[in-house]
Design goal:
Elements: H1 2-11, H2 16-32, H3 37-62, H4 67-84, H5 87-98, H6 100-106, H7 111-123, H8 127-140, H9 145-157, H10 161-178
Helix pairs in contact: 1-2, 2-3, 3-4, 4-5, 5-7, 7-8, 8-9, 9-10
Length: about 180
């Protein structure tokens, strides 16, 4: 598959989809391959580069963002931020997750977007912003265990152990319910 994508890029270097496919292949290999930390970082940087290229080419040709590719850019930045502990990756992810054009197409009330943005704000140590995003995500979708687990992390960091324990219990109950 990787060779086919490479040939497609050679034939049509200004088409967004082969770059996106190659980024997805790299991401899959990074998640499921038995890689060292430095190999994982290198692969994820390559995936981020291809995601950025795909996003730029799509937007140039369609005059609007491809939200799925934009979210892939954000997620890859988050992965790299957590692997390298470099703040700039989280800041770039947050730019994508607050971009007006992206919000226009995904909707400002998307629980997934709010929870993802909240997790980035945790990494940037913006705990009040993270708590606001997670509270709103839970208002939209109160049956998602990951949202409660993420909010429990915020409560722990804020020293609110009772609230953290309540959210951990709720997360466990929802996880059991859906298993």
């Amino acid at each position: 598959a990787h060779e086919k994508v490479g040939r497609a890029i050679e034939k049509v270097p200004d088409y967004w989809r082969p770059y996106w496919r190659r980024a997805l292949i790299a991401n899959h290999h990074a998640r499921h391959g038995n890689l060292s930390n430095s190999e994982n970082i290198d692969l994820r940087r390559a995936a981020l580069s291809d995601h950025r290229r795909a996003a730029g080419l799509y937007q140039a040709g369609h005059r609007k963002p491809n939200v799925r590719v934009q979210l892939d850019v954000a997620r890859e930045n988050i992965n790299l931020g957590r692997l390298t502990h470099q703040r700039t990756y989280f800041e770039e992810a947050l730019k994508v997750l607050t971009d007006k054009a992206v919000l226009k197409y995904i909707g400002t009330h998307s629980d997934y977007l709010l929870a993802l943005r909240g997790s980035v704000k945790i990494d940037l140590n913006d705990l009040s912003g993270a708590l606001q995003d997670l509270n709103n995500a839970i208002l939209i979708s109160s049956n998602t265990s990951d949202y409660y687990r993420t909010r429990a992390r915020i409560w722990h960091r804020l020293g609110q152990s009772d609230a953290a324990e309540r959210d951990e219990r709720q997360s466990a109950q929802l996880h059991e319910l859906w298993m």
